[in-house]
Amino acid sequence: MAQTRLERLYELSHLTDGWHDGEGLAIGPKAMESAAALLALNPAFVDKARIYPGLEGSVLFEFDEDGTDVTIEMHADGSIAFHSVALFTAEERTTTFESLDALLAELGPARHLAL
Questions:
Q1: Residue 71 is inside which H or E element, if any?
Q2: Cβ pair 47, 5 in contact under 8 A
Q3: How much is the pLDDT for 113?
Q4: 85 close to 92: Cβ distance less than 8 angstroms
Q5: Contact 114, 63 (CB under 8 A)
Q6: How many CA atoms lie less than 13 Å away from 34 in the CB half-sphere?
């Protein structure tokens, strides 16, 4: 059976400093907390997201939504970067939020966009 997204997040929580050929910080507690909260919001999101560790102690979620590539990065300091690229128009959007709540407030009615 394939690894679930929650299992993947649990696996990432055990990374230690230097996990990537001597580089890469352990995932920060704030990043892990935000990542777990995001996964708890919508089971459909859990199924489509690919989850990776970031070198600076962050957690990255990547997924495709109706022709748009989306990356959400939960930083170790608790901030969240949202980046999207529409594949057919090349329209890009990059925004940094102070928290997951701020990201969700910004998405408003568009929360269905993967969330």
A1: strand 68-74
A2: yes
A3: 47
A4: yes
A5: yes
A6: 28
